[in-house]
Amino acid sequence: MSDQALETVSEISALRKLVASRRQQGATIGFVPTMGALHAGHTSLIEAAGADCDFVVVSIYVNPTQFGPDEDFERYPRVLEQDLAKCAAAGANLVWTPDTSIMYPDGYSTDVTVKALSRILEGATRTNHFQGVTTIVTKLLLSCLPDIAYFGAKDFQQQAIIRRMCLDLNIPVEIKTCPIIRDTDGLALSSRNAYLSAEEREAGLSLSRALRLAQEKVAAGETDIAQIKAAMQQLLNATPLLKLDYATIADPTTLEDISTVQSEMVALIAARVGTTRLIDNCQLAPAATEKT
Ligand code: AMP
User: What distance in angstroms lies between residue 151's CA and the mean position of ligand 1's atoms?
Assistant: First the structure.
C-alpha cells in the first residue's frame, strides 16, 4: 500500500498534470473507473491496480448517459467521504471526481458506440446503456491515459464491449478484468444491493445458485447446452419475487449464444427482483476429456 496521502482532483487539466509528472518519474499508471458507493468489489480492483502499477487513479462519477429515463440515476447512492476513505485504505494515490459540466460540456454531441455487442443481453433491455458506458469510458481513458485500466467481471458484457472498443479505436490501454467479489451468501456485490429488502435479497441468491448449478453440470460432463440453460431457467423461474430476463450460455468474446460445448464459455443471468435489476455470470470449464 502507498504511504503517500490520497490526492483528489476534479479538473482534467489537474489530473493530466499529476499523471504526467508521475509518468515522467517512470511510474506506471493504473486506472479504476467507478460510479462510487464503493464496496469490496471496487476495492479489489484498486488493490489489483496497486499490485501491478506504481500510481493508481480512481475516478468517481455517476454518469448520467448510461441510465435510462426510468432508471435510478437520481437515487443512485452518492457517499463521497466514505468512498475516499475506502480508496485510501485500498492504496489509491489519486481520486478524480469530474463533474458533468466537464464531462458533457454545453453543446455536447459526440457518442462512441460498439455496435453489435451493445444491442444484445443487457443492451436489449437497457437501450443506450452501453453507448453511455463506452462514451464515458473513452473520455475517462483519454483524460487519464493510464497504462492499464481495471474492470470487474461482474459486468461481463461491459468489459467485453470495452475490450472491443479499445481494439477498434486503437486506444493504447491494457484492459484487465478482475474476478467477481461476492458476499458470503453468494450474492455478487453491487452498489444496487442496498435497494433490496430481506426477502428480495433471498430471491437474489437464486442467480448465484443457478450459476453454480450450470458449473456443476458442465464439470460433471453435461454437454447439452440447451439442457443446462433449461435447468438454470427452471431454478430461477421457481423463485418467488424474481422475474427472469435471461439465463444463457455464450461465447466470452462475442457474447453470442452457443449451442455446443466449447473450451471457453460464460453463463450470464439477468433478473429483476422488485424494482432492482440484478446481473451475474460465471465462466464454465468443460470437464477435461480423458486421455487414452
Ligand atoms: P460501477 O461503480 O458499478 O460502475 O463499477 C465500477 C467497476 O467495479 C466496474 O468495473 C465493475 O464491474 C466493478 N465491480 C462492481 N461490482 C463488482 C464485484 N462484485 N466484483 C468485482 N468487480 C465489481
Answer: 7
Of 35, 39, 42, best ligand 1 pocket probe by most atoms within 8 Å of the beta carbon? 42
| 3-state secondary structure (DSSP) of residue 189 | coil
49 CB under 6 A from ligand 1? no
Residues whose CB is less than 8 angstroms from the CB of residue 58 and which lie 6 or more positions away in sequence, other chains included: 31, 32, 33, 34, 46, 87, 92, 94, 95, 96
Measured in Å, residue 134 CA sits from the centre of ligand 1 at 15
Q: What single-letter amino acid sits at 61?
A: Y
Residue 129 CB–ligand 1 contact under 6 Å: no
Residue 132: in which H helix or E strand, if any?
helix 129-144
Tens-binned pLDDT, residue by residue, of the chain (292 aa): 445 689 999 999 999 999 999 999 999 999 999 999 999 999 999 999 999 999 999 999 999 999 999 999 999 999 999 999 999 999 999 999 999 999 999 999 999 999 999 999 999 999 999 999 999 999 999 999 999 999 999 999 999 999 999 999 999 999 999 999 999 999 999 999 999 999 999 999 999 999 999 999 999 999 999 999 999 999 999 999 999 999 999 999 999 999 999 999 999 999 999 999 999 999 998 876 554 4
Ligand 1 site, residue 280, Cβ cutoff 6 A: no
Query: Is residue 42 annotated as part of the catalytic site, yes or no?
Result: yes
Report whether 154 contacts 190 (CB < 8 A).
yes
pTM confidence score: 0.96
